[in-house]
Amino acid sequence: MHVSGALETHIVRNDFRCGFCGEILEEAISFRNLSDKMVIEIVPVKIVNSGQKIILSNERLQAINVILRDEQVNSIELGQGCTVVGTCRVDRNAEDVVISLEANNIMKFKPSFLVSLSTSSRIIQKLHDVCSRSPWLWPFFLAHIFGARIVPGGYMIKLRLLLLISLVLDPEVNYLHILSIGKESSLYFSLVQFAQKFAQRFFPVSVASPLSGKVMKDKYTWAPYFLQGGSLFMSCGGVCSLGNVSEWKKAKKEQLQTVLSTSKIFVDLSSKHTGGLYQQLSFPLKCHVWGLNEPSVKDKLSTHSTDVLNGQYSTGDLSKSFMDAFSYICFLDCGDLGTEEETARDVAQHIISSHVVDNDSDLFDIPFEEIDYFISLARQTDSKLTPAAEEVVQSYYKTSRMTRSSGLTGSHVPPSAMQTLISLAVGLAKLRLSTSVSHDDTVLAIYLYEEYLSSRFGQSCLGCPPRHNVPWSRLEELLGEQNHWLMQTFAEQLMRFCSTMMSSQIIHKEE
């Protein structure tokens, strides 16, 4: 097997023996064919796993060198999970142990789960049966359960629902990038730390790891350069946590904006690595992105000085193009002082009671394994968008862009709204364990997105008051009959709104 720095005579190991007679096998030098080769470093899945606690064992958690040849060179991707079959070689240099593999075969893999609802938690089944009376209650019940030990009742209820939807979606098919804006950074990171345990893969952005990729001199001296994958590559198939983007520099924000807008990761190759002109490599983005923007002191002071009639929330110094790059922006702060004071009391009481009193509520008795089992079941459900549901989404997309048009500057609704609406509808269908997206799923997806638009740009013709945080005293608005009647009224209003706007557009064109 070839290792770094080996001579030509050392390319093939000399300790292969015949399986029948036991004699040492000798290489036929005349048949030797040196072709394309590549060296890669693979890391065990546990290093970039879902964030669950590492089980201490005798397994090695270091990078392993793998040598590829011929067509195997084209079968490898940065960040992609794979199983390598090959010949192993162990070299010892004092206390250092270097493990290398000569790959004979490489197989790509994705985690697969064979689970059924009949074996899931009895509490989840009971809640699912209770929520069957209304098609719009089940997602809010799930969000209420999710992270119930971290935040109370309806606090950050929309963020919890969005995180659930993002966890069950396949980022290669339907991505959902979430940017949260608010001053409760500690509770946000606690909630994200809890949610990351259910992701198929989770890798945060840190100072040590670049956002995209890092190009350096090839340490194996085989090629002009060595490419190290960054956080977005290592999060392939899962979630990449950005942390607090308000602490980022402008150049890094622009880099992230380009990645999210194009759904591609770009890696620059300078002339010193290519030996010629500047080049750029592009790779598809295959992960969800979660981030937080914490307002500055100036923004915090002006949070309540916004126009109450308009209902717009402060977005700080973030540019419109940067926010448009994300699929959904979730505002963590309340819209009025009364609700904020009430939710602050709920949070304080929840923190005190969680440390002092043993809560016997069923919501706290659902084991981690049961929630993980249900999310895995929802993730493997293949939900398809029906023509009727797609027609509703398209009608709303067209009418919302027309109604929120600002003349010369175009529409406030970002072009990515269509993809976001489809992702939300598919995610809601997955949470229902349904193989098809229903009309009710699209209605709730549109309602969630209209809330986001109302929070950012002001109230709309549909009149969706943002409810990012719901106090205990008003929790019935989400988990009771009031929510059913609200959504039913919104569905009827949505159909009238879309039909009226489309018909008026046709009349205008005829005139």
Automatic annotation (TrEMBL):
Q: Where is the signal peptide?
A: none
Q: Which domain of life is it from?
A: Eukaryota
Looking at the record, the residues that make up the MCM AAA-lid domain are 371-452
> What GO terms describe the biological role, i.e. biological process, of this protein?
double-strand break repair via break-induced replication
Checking Pfam families in the record gives: MCM_lid
- Name the residues that span the membrane: none
What would you give as a GO molecular function for this chain, any one? Answer: single-stranded DNA helicase activity
GO CC entries? nucleus
Show the PANTHER family listed in the entry: DNA REPLICATION LICENSING FACTOR MCM FAMILY MEMBER (PTHR11630), MINICHROMOSOME MAINTENANCE DOMAIN-CONTAINING PROTEIN 2 (PTHR11630:SF75)
The molecule here is called Minichromosome maintenance domain-containing protein 2-like isoform X2
Q: Which organism is it from?
A: Biomphalaria glabrata (Bloodfluke planorb)
